[in-house]
Design brief:
The chain is about 75% helix and about 0% strand. It contains 6 helices and 2 strands; from the N terminus they run H-H-H-H-E-E-H-H. Strands 1-2 form a two-stranded antiparallel ribbon. Helix 4 runs parallel beside helix 6. The two termini are about 20 Å apart.
Length: about 200
Amino acid sequence: MADRVQGNVRSLQGLTAILAALSLALFAWIYAGFVRAFSDAAAGEQMLDARIGGYERDDVIAMLRYLKDHPDPAAILHSMYLGPELIFPLVLGGLLFCLLRLVRPSGIFFGRPIPPGAVSLIFSLPVFYGVMDYAENIAGLLLYPPATPSDGTVTLLSGLLPVVVRLKFLTLVVTIILLARFAILRYLSADGSKPS
């Protein structure tokens, strides 16, 4: 039984390493191949997807107007959505999920034992991140050229995109904080076990 558990942990560690390498490669491809190319083609204009601090409705509308008059940056953005962004949210969400499995969320949180429902909620964070990232990408495909959205679609998506982006980054940050917390607690656990 112990050998089987050890084998499962090793398999999970191997999968985590593969997903980490893929995430890093995809991130490098997105940054070097699309974010920088967009900035170069747009004379220094920054892609909204690259703004970690988020953006507002007016930024979305300004970007839409800009891309209508500049086909090269629009083509780069469209290619990114149909290229690495098709798999990056899935790979990063999978990596976060595997990391959570490795650190095994449990213990005490704010002086109380973590209930099973909260552990389930913690494991749903990477899935929610992936859904929000895909929602952002789909909205971008529906909004930016070569798409020709109606005025109602522009109004809806320009208001929705900033909320989706904030939820995506909030989920990512919370997941990373929880990963760090559980990894540190596991490392410092009373039985002396270190994170695997």
